[in-house]
Design a protein that fits this description.
By secondary structure, this protein is an alpha/beta fold. It contains 13 helices and 18 strands. The strands form four sheets. It has an eight-stranded mixed β-sheet with strand order 14-13-9-12-11-10-17-18. Strands 5-4-1-6-7-8 form a six-stranded parallel β-sheet, sandwiched between helices. The chain starts with a strand and ends with a strand.
Amino acid sequence: MAPLNVIMVGTGEYTTGFVDGGMSGSDKKIGVVALTMFDLRRRGKVAKLGMVGTTGTKFPAIRKHLQDNISAAYNNLDVYFDSYPSDTTDRDPNSYKAAIDMLSPGDAITIFTPDTTHFMIAMYAIQRGIHVLITKPAVKLLHQHQTLIHEAWRHNVLVFIEHHKRFDPAYADARARAKKLGNFNYFYSYMSQPKSQLQTFKAWAGKDSDISYYLNSHHVDICESMVPDYKPVKVTASGSKGTAEELGCKSGTEDTISLLVEWQKRDEPGRKATAVYTASWTAPLRAGVHSNQHFHYMASEGEIRIDQGKRGYDVADDAQGQLMWFNPFYMKYSPDHEGNFDGQTGYGYISLEKFVDAVVALKMGTVTLDELDRRGLPTLKNTIATTAILEAGRRSLDELRPIEIVEAGKGWVLI
């Protein structure tokens, strides 16, 4: 089987590490998606690569950034890609169509763009037989998620949601152990990023999406994957405000959002569980970590606690002026002994490689969409509860009331 051709839709921090004309100040200084795809091409898993933005005039600077900080750092790693639109085009929000039209059925795209654009880009690709990886959240609306499920099955393409925390070794181990701890009873999670991220996300923060869609999506998905015998039935949301507005975000932008979710066992409706998911993008600037993240899972016969903010690895650097806790388990950017990129074991890399491997297996006929769903990968089918909870949370905030989630026939609805 020939290597996979991939178009990367979105040129921002997660794809390239290039933000506001220069290198990102976050832990993704050289990005995740493009670097991983360049390395997968070096390893023979990926062939042609392309990248899509809305502003073509950014591409010369993006190429220089990738050349200086990736190619020069890793033995002249090939960072070539075809770009859409052209370098002389000021703006073309529909450039993804021209890029996808250049692909053949069975090729793939990745989507790392604002949440409100995921659905239209994914639909355009799916209906042309293109496999799709979408950053979390898959989409903002439950009915869109269900439409994508239908269209993906109709065209026999894989749609994979980039919930990379599923591949964090501690979280993956916890999911397996949870199955042996009896009935689900309680889940609490917290995830945050420093308020400096609001500068990175200023184009959409509080306008097109919120912190719950952006960060709560991680732990809602982890919880969904841990308790397949349960379904969410009610969501009540609460949000704090003030700091994001002071930093220039749209009036009403929440700083922190908590979702209170009631879960019900599918074959035993009287058995309930409670979950609280909290996310914030107004954490302190000098907390020593880019993302504080932890959860507590309690069941009838045991409990699990994971703190992935500080992983027993800290570095004191005078240039930073503080103690820093790093996370090479996500992306390891230091080179190997030969000078090549050495981050293949990071769960950020693994998530993307799992998608590539699954698409190739599907094209070879060694696996079916049904089998991929049964493997517990973050497919559309395996992430529908997450979309339902996130939209219900947004509606709960907007409508100042609890939102119920109801399974109706073969679909789900919010009431």
